[in-house]
Design brief:
The complex is a heterodimer. Chain A has 4 helices and no strands. By secondary structure, chain A is mainly α. In chain B, strands 3-2-1-4-5-6 form a 6-stranded parallel sheet. By secondary structure, chain B is α/β, with parallel strands linked by helices. The termini of chain B are far apart. Classes of the chains: A mainly alpha, B alpha/beta. At the A-B interface, helix 1, helix 2, helix 3 and helix 4 of A face helix 1, helix 2, helix 3, helix 4 and helix 8 of B.
Chain lengths: 98, 467
């Protein structure tokens, strides 16, 4: 790993942090709970790392660790998105409320 | 072929960004969530297609198990239990990142000890791996403790002992020192690596146990941020842009929510994390100037509400505990039918996590355009005829404004005492979650309506229907 490769990663990191701050500041407090469970689901992106680890087949220990990581990341992803959807479904305006 | 995978990761990241953007309005939030989920699907498929996946068995099994557990959890969870659920999911995210870091280290280690290949673990890899492990471990064990406190499996009170700061400092020192040692020589330190996982887990536990149940909204927000940072660090380990971008988005979101929560409680983050709120309260009793309380019965309260042109309902967690959301919505509907303007005023820390009360009211079919933030209500509160406080206490305590000796002095509150009349629905004269005396109850324009929130609300509903 050379510095040349690291710099672009840090570039991306800094810009993403800035973007995150801008995006989240605009969310009203009424939606903070679904926002939190939704962004939580997004952090399940670790699933990508887990899939690589489990699928490379380098050795048994790494495969087992990767598989366990898949299970937990998947709970995080599926549970997070579904529960967020369940909450947002309930947010209705007057005319929509029966 | 990595190039094509990268393009798909970029598309996924853009979908997450657009999804989060759409989260800023209730009308588009659901669509935003769906877009974000679609982005995740793209990221997963891109990974499966373009990396050298040799063995599909474990992947399929792992994904199936995770999906089933996640779907069941999401379906059965009650809305009042949402804070625990989010804490738990956070923890799993952290654990997954930890496992990814561990798997990567193990892979590298096996290559080093394999005599057929020449391989070394460079400084960059060892530093990012150890950071991922530590943050992932703290996120996991911290979230489990937060979950246990919210679920009331363990005491919600701060757990404090002598020399706690010293013990925490020592553990932190061990984590940093051990991390440095490992980074310098990752090849000969497999045991140290395992020890550092244990240290991270311990640190998560010891840093959350001294924080009281009332401060859990802050802790959950912070842990949310950690889970993002853990994913981001895992991205640095495997040099994957998707993880770095997404992880930092979530990390930033958690930090902002933490800041908002701290501001709503008028406390610094350091104060929440290190002081143990309960112990602060116990030391400062404050003056208790008792006046007369004016209790009213349901009929009198009905008369007040019936004559009111505008009513502001201030719900607290007590409303959710009494399962009175539906009765509350019914009363609001009847008031509207009676020509009264009804607003729900929601304090940022009402409930057990940021925005929790809004979800609970939405579940009870309260239209979201009736929900007002504290800052929107306070400027017009003087024009409100009756403020109806249901199961809230500290967030309407005028001591936060008037009494400099009060532990909550300076905390922004909903100024219900400025409205023309206040009806406080309360089980008894006991103090609230934070254990602070509330002078609101003794004000001239305050009427106390004692009883279980659900019964009392149903009583009011019955009165309206009768007349």
């Amino acid at each position: 790993m050379t510095l040349d490769l690291l710099v672009p990663l840090i570039f991306i990191f800094a810009l993403a942090i800035f973007l995150g701050v801008e995006l989240i500041s605009r969310v009203p407090s009424i939606l903070h709970t679904p926002l939190m469970s939704g962004s939580n689901a997004i952090s399940g992106i670790t699933i990508v790392g887990a899939l690589v680890a489990a699928g490379e087949g380098h050795n048994m220990i790494s495969t087992i660790l990767g598989t366990a990581a898949i299970v937990f990341a998947m709970i995080n992803v599926v549970g997070g998105y579904l529960v967020t959807n369940r909450m947002l479904e309930m947010f209705k305006k007057k005319e929509d409320v029966k | 072929m990595k190039f094509i995978a990268e393009i798909f990761y970029l598309i996924a990241a853009l979908l997450f960004v657009v999804g989060l953007k759409k989260m800023s309005k209730p009308e588009t939030a659901r669509q935003g969530n769906a877009l974000s989920a679609f982005g995740m699907l793209i990221a997963i498929v891109a990974t499966l297609v373009h990396y050298h996946i040799l063995d599909w068995t474990y992947i399929v099994i792992g994904m199936l198990i995770g999906t089933i557990i996640g779907a069941v959890l999401a379906r059965i969870v009650k809305m009042t239990e949402m804070p625990q659920m989010v804490a738990l999911l956070n923890g799993y995210g952290g654990l997954a990142s930890l496992l990814v870091g561990y798997a990567e280290y193990n892979k590298q280690y096996e290559q080093v000890i394999n005599p057929d290949v020449i391989h070394t673990i460079d400084l960059y890899t060892s530093i990012t791996i150890i950071l991922t492990i530590l943050v992932g471990a703290i996120t996991f064990s911290g979230s489990v403790i937060a979950w246990a406190k919210l679920k009331e499996v363990m005491t919600g009170k701060p757990i404090l002992f002598k020399g706690q700061q010293f013990v925490n400092a020592a553990i932190l020192f061990a984590a940093v020192g051990g991390g440095v040692l490992f980074s310098i020589d990752p090849v000969n330190n497999y045991l140290l690596f395992l020890f550092l996982i244990a240290i991270g887990l311990t640190l998560g536990i010891t840093s959350v146990i001294p924080i009281g149940g009332a401060d859990m909204p802050v802790v959950i927000s912070l842990l949310n941020s950690y889970s993002g940072i853990a994913a981001c660090l895992a991205g640095f380990v495997i040099q994957n842009n998707a993880l770095i971008i997404t992880g930092s988005l979530v990390g930033a979101s958690g930090i902002i929510l933490t800041k908002i929560m701290c501001k709503a409680m008028n406390r610094s983050l350091a104060n929440v994390l290190f002081s143990g709120f309960g112990s602060v309260i116990a030391s400062s009793t404050g003056k208790s100037e008792h006046g007369e309380v004016s209790p009213v019965n349901v009929e009198d309260a009905y008369a007040l509400l019936e004559a009111a042109g505008s009513v502001c309902i201030v719900p607290g967690y007590g409303l959710a505990v009494a399962q009175a959301q539906h009765a509350c919505r019914e009363l609001a509907e009847l008031l509207e039918k009676n020509g009264t303007e009804v607003r729900f005023a929601i304090h940022p820390v009402a409930g057990r996590m940021p925005g929790h009360m809004n979800v609970l009211l939405a579940e009870a079919n309260v239209s979201y355009d009736h929900l007002y933030e504290m800052d929107a209500v306070n400027p017009i509160i003087e024009t409100v005829d009756v403020s109806l406080v249901v199961g809230a206490n500290d967030v309407v305590n005028p001591a936060a404004r008037e009494d400099k000796t009060s532990p909550i002095y300076g905390m922004p509150i909903i100024n219900v005492d400025h409205s023309k009349a206040v009806i406080v629905m309360k089980r008894s004269m006991a103090t609230g979650f934070a254990g602070i005396e509330n002078p609101l109850f003794y004000k001239d324009n305050t009427r106390m309506l004692f009883g279980d929130a659900k019964h009392v609300l149903q009583g009011l509903v019955a009165e309206f229907k009768k007349n």
